[in-house]
Amino acid sequence: MSLSPDKLDRIFELQEKLNLKIGVDPKSMDQQSKMQWLLNYTRAISQELAELVDCIPWKWWAKYQKLDLQNARVEVVDLLHFLISTAQLLGMTPDDLFEAYSKKHLVNIQRIEGGYHYKDEEDCRHI
Question: Which InterPro entries match (predicted)?
């Protein structure tokens, strides 16, 4: 199933160009390099999440904190950069990501509707 070109396709194109500019080309990497870059991206995602938390008044007891909406939006975009890079490193295309998202979305709905009383290791094996 091929989706028509859209914004997700464009995001993947832009991210691939950006990564190539800094010398990250998953197509030419061996397994060891891919594992290292997966770790790099995972750490970057973790850091970007921490930066997003810093934009949000998470100290419920502190009255001085304010939501930094503009910077929170920037951090979400930074997260997307690293998430798309990770998907590309794992060999995913925009169509692959959309299909996996759609399937996982249905699993999430089933979990919510079923009360999600226990973790079923098998409910995501088809994704």
Answer: dUTPase/dCTP_pyrophosphatase
